[in-house]
Amino acid sequence: MTGEPLLAVAGLHTHYGKSHILHGVTLEVGRGEVVGLLGRNGVGKSTTLKAIAGLVHPSAGEVTFEGRSIGRLQSHTVAQLGIAYVPEERRIFPLLSVLENLRTGLDRRGVDKAKRAELLDKLYAYFPILAERRNQPGGTLSGGEQQMLAIARAMTLEPKIILLDEPTEGLMPRMVSQILEIVGALRAEGVAVLLVEQNVPLTLEASRRVYFIEKGEVRHHALASALHVDDPVIHKYLGV
Amino acid sequence: MEIPLDQILIQTINGIVTGLILALVASGLTLIFGIMDVVNFAHGELLMLGAYMGVVMLALTGSFWLALVASALLIGIFGALLYVVTLRPLIGRDPLTTILATFGLSLVLQNYALWQFGAVSRKISEPITGHFNLFHLDYPWYRVTVALLSAAIIGGFWLFLKLSTWGIWIRATTQDRVMAQAMGIPVPWVLAGVFAIGSGMAAASGVLFAPFGGVDTTMGLNWILRAFIVVVVGGMGSLAGSVLAAILISLLEAYASLWVSPSQAVIVSFVVLILTLLWRPTGLFVATPK
Fold first, then answer.
1. Residue of A177, A232, A227 lying closest to A202 (CA atoms)
2. Are the beta carbons of B172 and A96 separated by less than 8 Å?
3. CB neighbours of B51 closer than 8 A, spacing ≥ 6?
4. CATH number where A162 lies
5. What does the pLDDT profile of chain B (290 residues) look like in tens digits?
6. Is residue A233 domain-resident?
């Protein structure tokens, strides 16, 4: 990584009511870099993404995006800066059509009609199934299709980074390899990805670097190429 | 008792006219409930203030139609301000707090109107005075105009929701506020905007109805009670449901008043409400319960 990171999280603490979830998470993502975040269930991976997206406000610590502190901003401002969020539950707008779901991100200030059409064509080329179902309510899509829509919807923001929370959860193997392709395509376009996953082989294949998180803290960090699936480090933090 | 056919037809038209005004009141209420789960007890007072604003603007401009537009705009802005100062701080709290807040607001607004405008009812004369002959009865054109105008406002609003960017923002925010905001939609503005639109629609119905019933400080109460019934019967948060329920209930009341006095005919609304709550509590016109 050279120069200033795109995204830097330093000593992040969060609380849900009285329970202390993150105990000082520190990590960095460079421009166009795919970074994996691995850890067991409930260690704070999703909360880290939510805190970056502005959905959870940190009780201590700093989130810096392109040198600007964003930890106190409302989530719509964070999104407008170029941070897109794909939640674990996908959260498609169920009664909006596929096209309208995409319009939630396309119809923003500074994007003219021609640019919108161009973006939409590009997304439909990536996800032909969405073009086919463009007038269907989002809630009627299958799980895999909803995942595609959630990622496409995030891409409508033309983000500099996408926060992907367990994109392959509950998907068929064919869909899983498609997710891997999409992450590759994003990287090729220079979009950074912070990927939270349970699927270790996929994470190692997609990411350049990997962070291991345990009990709300980053415990280890390594180049993905230096790890293999049954590495002792992976056994230690994931218990597989 | 034999009811002549022309009577039934006249009551049908009356029912549709009242139903469309009621639908205009109920749309704002159901929209606000749908997007922020707030039952706005001050909605009737916004209608009442809208009617008074119509009186003031009519005196100022001399034009009923200008007064209608000005009142809807001003009360719309006022509604957004009310939302920002009283309801926005309560977001995420127990729904009871918003009920108390809007109820308190309605008392304040009612007494403000009483202090400002006095207890004597004001009159707005019909801007269109012509009549046409309907079964040997003079039927005022103004009533028909009001019905068409209400339908046009609701129809225009529906198209706005369906096609415009703001419409998509409003619907996305209604379905998933957190995700809408994570998509960069300025949700705090959308909520204030919805309050403005709902308030403006209430004000417009207040001005449009004023020539029929006059303007007084308690006129909001009459409407709000029926609007609540409509919103529940139509399905909380469903715009189409509210419009259909408004017309259904107004028609039933109009037919009932063929046999009983209009004040007794109101009972029909309550019967419909009770039956709905018993058999289909999610609303009559909601395709699949949420």
1. A177
2. yes
3. B71, B124, B203, B206, B207, B209, B210, B215, B219
4. 3.40.50.300
5. 567 788 888 889 889 988 998 999 999 899 898 888 888 999 999 999 999 999 999 999 999 999 999 999 999 999 999 999 999 898 878 888 999 999 999 999 999 999 999 888 888 888 888 888 877 778 888 988 999 999 999 999 999 999 999 999 999 999 999 999 999 999 999 999 999 999 999 999 999 999 988 899 989 888 888 899 999 998 888 888 999 999 999 999 999 988 888 788 888 888 888 888 888 888 887 765 44
6. yes
The tokens of B243 are what?
Answer: 């419009």
Mind listing the domains of chain B with CATH numbers?
5-279 (1.10.3470)
CB contact under 8 A, B168 and A96: yes
CB contact under 8 A, B176 and A107: no
A13 part of a folded domain = no
What count of CB pairs under 8 Å joins A to B? 62
Is A5 contained in some domain?
A: no
Asked if the Cβ–Cβ distance from A74 to B181 is below 8 Å, we say: yes
A103–B181 C-beta distance less than 8 A = no
- pLDDT tens by residue, B99-124: 999 999 999 999 999 999 988 888 88
Q: Chain A: which residues have CB within 8 Å of chain B?
A: 53-55, 74-76, 79-80, 85, 87, 91, 93-96, 100-101, 103-105, 107-108, 153, 157
> Which phi and psi angles does B132 have, rounded to 5°?
-130, 165
CA angle at A195 for the pair A192 and A196, rounded to the nearest 5°? 160
Say whether residue B183 is in contact with chain A using an 8 A CB cutoff. Answer: yes
> Assign residue B102 a region: left if phi > 0, alpha if psi is -120 to 50, beta otherwise?
alpha
- In this complex, is the C-beta atom of B175 within 8 Å of any C-beta atom belonging to chain A? yes
Residue A106 C-alpha, separation from nearest chain B C-alpha, in angstroms: 9
User: How many structural domains is chain A composed of?
Assistant: 1
Q: Report the distance separating Cα B227 and Cα B222, nearest Å.
A: 9
Of A55, A95, A96, the CB nearest to B182: A55
Q: How many helices (H) and strands (E) does chain A have?
A: 9, 10
Helix (H) or strand (E) holding A218: strand A217-223
- Give me the domain span that covers residue A163: 33-55+82-210+221-238
Cβ burial, residue B132 (10 Å; 0-12/13-18/19+): exposed
| Nearest residue on chain A to B176, alpha-carbon basis | A93
